[in-house]
Design brief:
The complex is a heterotrimer of chains A (about 425), B (about 475) and C (about 425). Chain A has about 425 residues and is of the alpha+beta class. Chain A has helices at about 5-15, 25-30, 45-60, 110-120, 140-145, 150-155, 155-160, 190-195, 225-240, 250-255, 275-290, 325-340, 365-380, 395, 410-420; strands spanning about 20, 40, 65, 85, 95-100, 105, 125, 160-165, 175, 200-210, 210, 215-225, 245-250, 265-275, 295-300, 315-320, 345-350, 355-360, 385-390. Chain A is built from 15 helices and 19 strands. In chain A, a hairpin with a 4-residue loop joins strand 5 and strand 6. Among the domains of chain B are: about 100-215, Uridine Diphospho-n-acetylenolpyruvylglucosamine Reductase, domain 3 (2-Layer Sandwich); about 215-335, Alpha-Beta Plaits; about 335-420, 2-Layer Sandwich (Alpha-Beta Plaits), CATH 3.30.70.2740. Chain B has 15 helices and 18 strands.
């Protein structure tokens, strides 16, 4: 960059305060992404500071990489450039919360655990639960479109984000959406931001839809002897009026890792409702499971928090296909893993066709890419699905794109959007699909 | 602006003579949707039967700088399906097939002109339905629902149209036929499907929709509770939500509307109540039973005069028929009306209902109320007679004040009807210049030559100094005998 | 056109003589709920061939925004007059009356669409409502059928180049030999309920005389003295639908005189029944309202009576004749009667309320649209798997019979009274 590092640090410090502008190279090293170390890390305290920081970076032709709690920075292609990281961990206030409205406006740096504690006394919750993600910032969860078992009933960030305040690539503080649960006033800008990896704007404040916490909840683990049996059970469950709120599908390895009884395929389900309804549905669930050769046992609520372990391998893939094909892809993933000579753990979102494949240590990068990632991706894409590398070391990213193929006509539109709102390539350049 | 014979000929080449309407009489019938306040006849109407035809139409219009206005069933309430600048109206009514029902994947692929209710009817025997149920669902099209991100009484529990759209096939304003989304529930990249839903035809024309199908609930319980006043009913709504119960639907109707419905379809609503709540619980039977007791108790705590539970499917259907046809029965109530669609936070419902009454009294107009109380989406119907001097002005004034009151309470301009022509001037009350600018730039990405439904959704740039013109377009000479 | 101008203020492009009601036009809130119920909208998907669009045009004319043009006439011609829109309309727009009034204005003005088949219409109006003329036409038609000529003509498609003629020929049911006319009085059997006048109808009496005979038998068994006035001619429905309001009024008056001495006027043809029930609207000063209140469809009368019926196992589906379900709001009574026949399984007909395309003589004037609707109706009937389809109107019976035959749908097509009469236990 043309401007001297010292000058930049000075300007950043003028906005955020010296103590919130990281310069020490050793400290900066811990902010590395794919081996690239940023030139500066700033921790603003307010939306206004973020706005001024981004404006400064834009003027100085520096790139900006937003960061929440920092646990998902690995998602994305290696950065083209990594200059200023704006970390939102100081911005974690709950700005507005009217329990009766079941809507809350919170700063993007607030963590899921923090919010859970905040809403629990009112028997409400933000129904986002990416496995092992309690410490994640809500902004990060939204920007990466992360989701968990609660998706089964409540959807994802796309369905929960009502309004967003964000800073555009030129520093303009912008608002999109609404603060009420129903609004069609203008374009649904929040939809554009969810899953956009900060490439269109830095989320600073989010207005979220909450849900009441049902009075009672029970969880069950259903184990099946085969993929076919599990698939038949799952089809039966989806075709029934039963309404679990959380659902997860695990293979034997994931079950073991999560501390649950092991079967070839297991489903972890919870039903949350009035107590009588929980009992009633639970019995129906057990009957349905038994009718497909499954054995069911009660699972403690903390079984859900154990799921994080199933997706914490050095390589994490996200296979997305048609909902009805989920168990087939489980089989394909196991076969591919065998070919590639790796141990995997599988955690899936039943009913949504999303399968996370966690690959353990001791892998051969070339085999992982050649025997697992690329063939699986090709097979999924042939059916309109996709395979994303959510996390992986640089030697894997060197051999395959993180995101996979995007239909060229659709990519053209995405590219135009990026060019329109970030012509200078300020925000997280190169990390998103197609190198956007 | 009239269309040249060459352009008309080119349109006819695309859709055939039976797909082109150019007579003055025909175009006249397309000059408005349900909101007849806004009239603007197109210069031609085309009725394509395939996505390829739609793409050809858009490319032609782009080449010739002719505005395009899409139209479904024409039941919108925002002056959306009318052509203030003339141009070509593209009616999607002939593209109305169910292309595929995919029950294992719980989705359906449909053409945009398919009537919303027809999809639910086609899937009912198999145990599924299409959850978004706007009151117009017996006539509005799924493409129209997607374009306005329609709501409906059951969106309180099930979400709005965008939560039920997995993919869209669209022709953008640039003339590109693209497939956004698909059967998979997520994909890398920007959520273009999410942005296109609710875009009111300004970003592209929807030629195909992949929608989620939802399993029919195990049980349904429909409760009609009548109250002495609207305030009592509003307080009951707040209390139900505070108790952590989210019914499938929670609708309020006031006495003016009740009277009209009883005169019209006759739904068995109690006369003499100040307001009624139509509460529907659905889901597992055990859950419904556990929730209905507390709901009834809350209603009684708020002075409910009568609590009636529908005892049969026929009774339930009748109660809903009254609610769904409320818009239609207004013809019995009043010669003319202005309709708001503003949303307020639920907690502010009692407050805004007081304001509505005060505004009505202040302007000496009847304001009827039928709306989705559960999510704070109001539908105050301001009744007036345009034959009485001054009433229209008072109605407009009341309209403005009402909207202002809603926004001051932290609400939104429109909850489900959309912006169209009717509400675009109000957007600056909710968005700052930077926000509107962002949306305008997004629009240009999809519609670089500004041909897609011009004059809708976004306010015109202040520099243009353009006001709002609801007057009818004069017909060309020669229509007289 | 040298007619004296009607006295009174004009209503826009309409003159003062029987204009459509402005209140009726203004009742339309443009909600569009009528659209999916309209057969022509279902086929064409165009606004101007929907009830909402037609009302819009009428209102535009009433507000002087357009004149009464031949294009507008075309869109009104295409309207079946089935009134499904009235059933759907939440605001109570009296579409049927608005349509008839507007057609009346067009008729007097002499404005027609270029596609209008005036020759056929003139022929129909000159023959159908005149029993003598219609009766005389039928002998050669019977010969045509029984000598095998019809089989040859149809088999060789000889009428293919003559669309209208072909349409009429295709519609022709088996013309029965004229039996003995019904006596003027058929006494009641059992407990006496009253005097019922029987309307013979024009098409019914010649093409389905058994339906009249069965109706009389059933009424008598139900306890009515059945009076069959010789003086009755035509109810005037065809003239009303064609906008010949003055002719219609004259025929209505004659009809009312013929049935002056009965407690109830029983009609088994939906189109006629609907017209008779409207006499009160079109002739408010002539005791017509009282007359109209005495008119009932045969199903309305019989549903209130007990009839001894023996079992006859059959699978039946019921088609709602427009002028019965929409014009007279009679939908439950025929179904209830059919359910009373032991062994009869009544299968629901999807879109039963959607017009079959007969709509009076519409299928002779607009064969393309009528044909499309007839084909769709035949498909729906096939899908029920029923062996019998029943409807309370001769026009429907002819139309459905033709299209089921042409589509290879193997069903018997009969009037509900035929099924009831077959099951009637005579003592």
């Amino acid at each position: 960059m043309a401007v001297s590092t010292v000058a930049v640090h000075g300007a950043l410090a003028d906005i955020a305060g010296r103590e919130h502008c990281l310069r020490d190279p050793a400290a900066l090293a811990s902010y590395a992404i794919d081996g690239m170390i940023p030139a500066a890390v700033v921790r603003p305290a307010s939306a206004d500071e973020v706005s001024r920081l981004v404006a400064l970076c834009a003027a100085e032709r520096l790139t900006v990489t937003p960061r929440g709690a920092g646990t998902s920075m690995a998602l994305g292609n290696p950065p083209r450039r990594l200059e200023v990281v704006i970390e939102l961990s100081r911005m974690r206030a709950v700005r507005e919360y009217v329990p009766e409205d079941m809507v809350a406006t919170v700063e993007a740096g607030a963590t899921l655990d923090q919010l859970a504690a905040h809403f629990a006394p009112h028997r409400q919750a933000l129904t986002l639960d990416p496995p092992g993600g309690g410490a994640r910032s809500v902004g990060g969860v939204l920007a990466t479109h992360a989701s968990g078992p609660l998706r089964f009933r409540y959807g994802t960030g796309r369905d929960l984000l009502l309004g967003a305040r964000f800073v555009q690539a030129d520093g303009a503080l912008t608002w999109g959406g609404a603060k009420v649960v129903k609004s069609v006033t203008g374009y649904d800008v929040p939809k554009l931001l969810v899953g956009s990896l900060g490439t269109l704007g830095v989320l600073v404040e989010t207005t979220l839809r909450l849900h009441p916490t049902p009075p009672a909840s029970r969880s069950w683990r259903l184990g099946f002897p085969s993929r076919e049996a599990a698939g038949a059970f799952l089809a039966g469950l989806l075709d029934s009026p039963l309404q679990p709120d959380r659902a997860a599908l695990l293979d034997g390895a994931a079950l073991r890792r999560a501390g649950l009884a092991v079967d070839p395929i297991g489903l972890l389900l919870s039903i949350s409702s009035a107590a009588e309804a929980v009992e009633h549905q639970g019995r129906a669930l057990a009957r349905l499971g038994a009718s497909h050769g499954g054995r069911s046992d009660q699972a403690p609520d903390r079984a859900w928090t154990g799921l994080g372990g199933a997706v914490d391998g050095p390589i994490l893939l996200r296979a997305i296909g048609e909902s009805r094909r989920l168990l087939e892809w489980v089989g394909e993933a196991h076969a591919a893993a065998a070919r590639a000579g790796v141990e995997v753990m599988l955690l899936a979102q039943p009913g949504h066709g999303v399968l996370q494949i966690s690959i353990g240590d001791g892998f051969d990068a070339a085999r992982v890419v050649g025997d697992l990632v690329l063939p699986l991706r090709r097979a999924l894409e042939a059916e309109g699905g996709s395979l994303i590398l959510e996390r992986g070391p640089i030697e894997i990213k060197a051999k395959c794109d993180v995101w996979g193929h995007i239909d060229p006509e659709v990519f053209t539109i995405m590219s135009r959007i990026k060019t329109e709102f970030d012509p200078g390539g300020v925000l997280n350049p190169g990390r998103f699909v197609g190198g956007l | 602006m009239a269309l040249t014979p060459q352009i008309l000929g080119a349109l006819q080449d695309i859709v055939g003579p039976a797909g082109l309407v150019v007579s003055a009489e025909g175009r006249l019938t397309y000059e408005c949707d349900m909101h007849t306040f806004y009239k603007g006849a197109p210069d031609a109407v085309v009725l394509p039967e395939s996505a390829a035809q739609v793409a050809a139409i858009v490319r032609l219009c782009r080449r010739e700088h002719v505005p395009i206005v899409p139209r479904g069933s024409g039941t919108g309430l925002i002056g959306g399906a009318m052509a203030p600048e003339g141009g070509v109206m593209v009616s999607m009514t002939r593209m109305n097939r169910i292309v595929e029902l995919d029950f294992p994947n719980r989705c359906a692929t449909v053409e945009p002109g398919l009537i919303n209710l027809w999809l639910s009817q086609a899937t009912r025997d198999r145990g599924y339905f299409f959850a978004p149920d706007p009151s117009s669902q017996m006539v509005s099209s799924i493409g129209g629902n997607a374009s306005t991100n329609a709501g409906g009484p059951h969106c309180l529990k099930y979400g709005i149209t965008v939560n039920h759209v997995l993919g869209l096939e669209v022709v953008t304003g640039a003339g590109e036929l693209v497939r956004l989304g698909g059967k998979a529930h997520e994909r890398p990249g920007y959520d273009l499907t999410g942005v296109m839903v609710g875009a009111e035809g300004t970003l592209g024309l929807v030629t195909g929709v992949i929608v989620r199908l939802t399993h029919l609930p195990e049980g349904v319980k429909t409760i009609l509770a009548s109250f002495p006043t609207i305030e009592d009913a509003s307080e009951a709504v707040s209390a139900i939500i505070r108790a952590g119960i989210i019914p499938a639907a929670l609708e309020m109707l006031d006495e003016v509307v009740i009277r009209a419905i009883e005169e019209g379809v006759g739904a068995g609503y109690p006369k003499g109540a100040g307001a009624v709540l139509l509460i529907e619980l659905d889901g597992p039977t055990a859950e419904i039973e556990a929730q209905s007791g507390p709901i009834e108790a809350i209603c009684r705590d708020h002075l409910a005069l009568e609590i009636r539970v529908a005892q049969s499917e026929a009774e339930r259907a009748l109660l809903w028929k009254g609610r769904k046809e409320a818009a239609g029965v207004f013809g019995r109530l009043t010669p003319n009306w202005l309709l708001q669609d503003a949303v307020v936070p639920r907690s502010k419902l009692p407050q805004i209902m007081k304001e509505v009454l005060a505004i009505g009294a202040r302007h000496r107009l009847v304001i009827a109320n039928v709306f989705h109380a559960g999510d704070g989406n109001l539908h105050p119907l301001i009744c007036y007679d345009d034959r009485v001097p001054g009433e229209l002005e008072r109605a407009k004034q009341a309209n403005e004040e009402l909207l202002g009151a809603c926004l001051r309470l932290g609400g939104s301009v429109t909850g489900e009807h959309g912006v169209g022509l009717d509400k675009r001037a109000s957007l600056p009350m909710q968005f700052a210049d930077a926000d509107l600018d962002f949306m305008a730039r997004l629009r240009r990405v999809f519609d670089p030559d500004s041909i897609m439904n011009p004059g809708k959704l976004l306010p015109s740039h202040p520099a243009c100094g353009e006001g709002f013109r609801p007057a009818a377009r004069p017909l060309p000479a020669g229509t007289w005998i | 056109m040298s007619q004296t101008q009607p006295v009174g203020p004009r209503l826009g492009a309409f003159d003062a003589q029987d204009p459509p009601s402005m209140d009726g036009l203004r009742a339309c809130v443009h909600c569009g709920i009528c659209l999916p119920q309209c057969p022509t909208y279902r086929v064409l998907g165009e606004e101007m061939d929907s009830p909402r669009g037609r009302v819009y045009l009428m209102r535009a004319a009433a507000e002087d925004r357009i004149g009464l043009t031949s294009t507008m006439a075309r869109h009104l011609d295409l309207c079946l007059g089935c009134r499904a829109c009235e059933t759907a309309c939440p605001s109570g727009v009296p579409f049927g009356q608005l349509l008839e009034a507007t057609r009346g204005q067009f008729e007097r003005l002499g404005v027609t669409a270029p596609t209008r088949d005036s020759a056929t219409l003139r022929f129909i109006l000159a023959t159908f409502p005149h029993p003598g003329r219609l009766g005389r036409m039928l002998r050669p038609l019977r010969m045509y059928q029984r000598t095998g000529m019809q089989a040859v003509v149809r088999g060789l498609g000889l009428l293919a180049p003559f669309k209208k003629l072909r349409a009429m020929e295709a519609l022709l049911p088996r013309v029965p030999r004229p039996g003995a006319p019904l006596p003027e009085l058929i006494p009641a059997r059992g407990r006496h309920r009253g005097r019922a006048g029987l309307l013979l109808g024009c098409a019914q009496r010649f093409f389905y005389p058994d339906v009249n005979a069965d109706t009389a038998r059933l009424l008598s068994a139900a306890g009515y003295d059945v009076v069959v006035p010789r003086a009755q001619e035509c109810c005037g429905a065809l003239h009303l639908h064609a906008g010949r309001i003055a002719d219609f009024r004259a025929m209505a008056k004659r009809m009312m005189r013929a049935f002056a001495e009965v407690d109830v006027v029983v009609v088994n043809a939906a189109g006629c029944g609907s017209a008779l029930k409207e006499y009160g609207h079109w002739l408010p000063d002539d005791g017509a309202r009282a007359f109209s209140e005495r008119v009932q469809d045969v199903s309305e009368v019989l549903v209130g009576c007990e009839l001894p019926l023996r079992a006859r196992p059959q699978t039946v589906t019921y088609h709602d004749a427009c002028h019965l379900v929409h014009g007279q709001k009679v939908r439950a009574q025929p179904r209830e009667l059919l359910r009373r026949i032991p062994g009869l399984t009544l299968v629901d007909l999807p879109d039963s309320e959607l017009c079959c395309g007969s709509a009076g003589v519409y299928n002779l004037l607009e064969p393309e649209m009528a044909g499309e609707l007839g084909r769709r109706k035949a498909t729906r009937i096939r899908e029920t798997g029923a062996r019998v389809v029943t409807a309370g109107n001769p026009g429907c019976l002819m139309q459905i019979h033709q299209h089921c035959r042409e589509a290879g749908v193997d069903v018997e097509v009969v009037h509900p009274v035929t099924l009831l009469a077959r099951a009637l236990e005579e003592r």
